[in-house]
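yo

u said u wanted the structure for the complex thing, so here. seqs first:
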Amino acid sequence: MLLTTVARQGLCLSRSQFGVLYRHVVPMGTTANEEMNKFWAKNTRLNRPVSPHISIYKWSIPMMMSISHRGTGVALSSGISAFALAALVLPESYPYYLDLIHSMTFGPQFLAFSKFALAFPVAYHTFNGIRHLAWDLGKGFKIPEVYRSGYIVVALTVLTSIGLAAM
Amino acid sequence: MAALVRISSVCHRGVSPLLFRSSSLIRPLAVQKKDRDCPYLISAKIHATPSNYAGSGSKAASLHWTGERILSIVLLGLAPVAYYYPGPAVDYTLAAALTLHGHWGLGQVLTDYVHGDFKIKMANAGLFLLSTVTFAGLCYFNYHDVGICKAVALLWSKRLD
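structre next:
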């Protein structure tokens, strides 16, 4: 069965198996958001269980990096919110509490490790964020490119975190 | 004879592959390979609102997406500025940019995982409250305390006892 395709400003001509020629595509009446809500409403109403997905699918580097991007984002945001809340609630000033914590630290390694632990999620989220922005420009979607950019992000993260922790 | 093909993305010359998505195709078709191993896809159901159709429906979601990217780039640029020119201007800008970036980011997380009209409303209300408190707290810190840039500098200046 031969099908000819012509692309015209993003629209496609197509011929179905019944020989009906669709000249134009009709814009959907619902938004993606509405359709998503309809999906969830129907399936929760019917009490359907969710098929296993992340519990059975083989993990890949891009998958792990993607959820790590989300994880570091949530963690950093929570940290900032906790900091802001503390600033509003605690009576003393920042230098006071900083010195307090510093006096409690268990040796120089702890200090370097703490700096590394703070720098690491910031660095990872930043570098992977740049990777995301490149994708948003349409670049780097080929699978080998995805892996290569991923490895570069991880390498830069480790190096930057070590560098910052040493400062 | 006929192959059932499931295609999940459209690739079109000059158009970002992110813009189009076709639903699964459950009818026989043959895919022709054109230049640059970029197959043109045939679909009778395209979930897209091409710009040459007078769109019913607002551009709010699209503008939000663009705003998120612009804010990310602004935040990226703020980092070296904060390092070389610390001070109240950068402190407050950082407070705003960080809070908004986090607010929008967490908003996407909620959109992905929270379903059901009431739950979505509640979750978003909670997020809004959190972001408001966060921004208020950061501004308070900038005004009454040392400020974000100085705080990072002080923290990093701590060395072995």
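The longest helix of chain A spans residues 61-89. Residues 2-19 of chain A have pLDDT under 50 and may be disordered.
cya
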